[in-house]
Amino acid sequence: MAISRREFFATAAAPAFLSAAASRRPNFIVIVADDLGCHDLGCLGAADLKTPHLDALAASGARFVNWYSNAPVCAPARSSIMTGRYPIRAGVPNNGPALAPEQKTIASLLKPLGYATACIGKWHLGGTPDTDPNAHGFDYYYGFHSGCVDYYSHRYYWGGANLVNYHDLWRNGSEIFEDGQYLTERIAAEARQFITRHKTDPFFLYAPFNGPHYPMHAPEKYVKRFAGLDPERRMYAAMIAAVDDGIGEIVDALKQAGILENTMVVFVGDNGATTEKRAGLNQHFARAGDNGPFRGFKFSLFDGGMHVPGILSWPGKIPARQQIRELAMSMDILPTICKAASASLPDRYSVDGSDILAVATSQARSPHPALFWAQNGQLATRRGKWKLVLNGVLHDRTPDGGKMTGDDAIFLSNLDEDPGEMTNRRHQHPEVVDELSTSVHHWFEALGDN
Q1: What residues are paired with 9 via a beta bridge?
Q2: pLDDT tens profile 247-270
Q3: How far is CA 326 from the centre of its chain?
């Protein structure tokens, strides 16, 4: 259910830990990994990858084991992070549409409070002067507009015969050329520089890395770390290691500036690992990313598509070494940040996410009685242990992509017993199917009315 401005501010008084005499507001950093497998961090149990910086970030705060993206594909997921809204309400139900100028973002809501704002990395929500990051509240932008670019030439070349490949690297409104420089490292360097420049100002940094999204590129120094892996997994691991080192650079910059304890850092994935052939080898389905134990891949509303890592770190505010099982979604990031910053929502503007800071700081219950998704004809909802997927598609490596048909077109899972969604319980619990199906259709119809 959407939260109105009045409802939001009924509970959005300045947090207790922000005294009236506080010299400055807290900083916020939101970091996104692109097409990261649900299992592919050391802190998530991956034994063949090394992610010491992300593992340390998770250990310093709260790791949510039931964090969901709002979509199993890049742009809709990012629209929810930016706006606090379901992708349909944000106007970005699929890859392609831009984030409209009237949509509010974390950056545009924090700017009136004196925050310096930066987007450094992958935007994927528009490339025109009225839809790029600078138009959405970001003072500074370094990165690319499209869904992916070559890591060294910074060109987009996935448009097929009807779209000529093009160069796509920008600093604010100006195209820049940094040929031969590895983009993951450049994103980290730009982020570090922004933190250093604004260490005495409150700031919001949005750092959406494009790793480990295809094309599968990494410098040899990262590839060497994983000599024992097969070639496809090895390159994927190297790309994740580069992102991990970049996050280490960001955290080190906070320490060097003496502002680590005044900074909330959020890390999420945008969706699960992909099987797309352009991420694989020799025109075969990609096999490097691991979504286990969840079923499905990028584009799927089974959990492998959008059950993603979620980490909140704020030393001194969020207790360390927590594993939180409560439900959370990426659209919760905006209201959580706005609550912590005492930022206002405009009149007649509503968000769908909820403030989850109390979940991370004091083991509060999730504000979500249920979660909902829609993607290309698929519908899904989770309520407690129950998950219902309607017209699901696994987007796996089978010829039809794992389209669920017959009885399995209505797929009910008990996630407590079956987190992999392998056993359909629809016939054992028809009353649950009826309740969840009714609720998800009502949700979808209501968003359509909006």
Answers
A1: none
A2: 999 999 999 999 999 999 999 999
A3: 17
In 3D, which of 138, 203, 209 has the Cα closest to residue 173? 138
Q: For the chain, how far is it from start to end, CA to CA, in angstroms? A: 12
How many angstroms separate the CA atoms of 5 and 29, rounded? 24
State how far the Cα of 84 lies from the Cα of 329, in Å rounded to an integer. Answer: 9
110-143: per-residue pLDDT in tens? 999 999 999 999 999 999 999 999 999 999 999 9
The count of other CB atoms within 10 Å of the CB of residue 369 is: 11
Is 43 among the catalytic positions? no
Residue 151 banded pLDDT, cuts 50, 70, 90: very high
| 124 a catalytic residue | yes
Helix (H, G, I), strand (E, B) or coil at 25: coil
Taking the C-alpha atoms of residue 81 and residue 103, their distance in angstroms, rounded to an integer, is 12
Active site residue: 74, 119, 148, 338, which one? 74
pLDDT of 134: 98
Is the pLDDT reported for residue 13 higher than 60?
no
Residue 374 identity (one-letter amino acid): A
Spatial neighbors of 405 by CB under 8 A, at least 6 apart, are none
Contact assessment for residue 286 and residue 52, using Cβ atoms and an 8 Å cutoff? no
> Does 2 have pLDDT greater than 70?
no
- Write down the catalytic residue from 38, 53, 119, 124: 124
Could you give the C-alpha distances from 395 to 73, 277, 303, in angstroms and in order?
Answer: 12, 12, 12
Element (H, E) at 185: helix 183-197
State pLDDT tens for residues 333-344.
Answer: 999 999 999 998
For residues 196 and 182, give the distance between their C-alpha atoms in angstroms, rounded to a whole number: 21
Backbone angles phi, psi at 75, to 5 degrees: -65, -45
Q: Is the dihedral of CA 95, 145, 80, 327 positive or negative?
A: positive
Q: How confident is the model at residue 162 (pLDDT cuts 50, 70, 90)?
A: confident
Q: Is 140 helix (H, G, I), strand (E, B) or coil?
A: strand
pLDDT at 3: 59
In a 3-state reduction of DSSP, which class is residue 322? strand
Lowest average pLDDT, out of 36-40, 160-164, 215-219, 326-330, goes to 160-164
Strands 166-167 and 62-64: unpaired
What is the number of alpha carbons within 13 Å of residue 328 lying toward its C-beta? 35
448 Rama class: left (phi>0) / alpha (psi -120 to 50) / beta: alpha
Tokens of 378: 């698929």
Cβ neighbours of residue 218 closer than 8 Å, sequence gap 6 or more: 151, 182, 184, 235, 238, 239, 241, 242
Residues β-bridged to residue 118: 140, 205
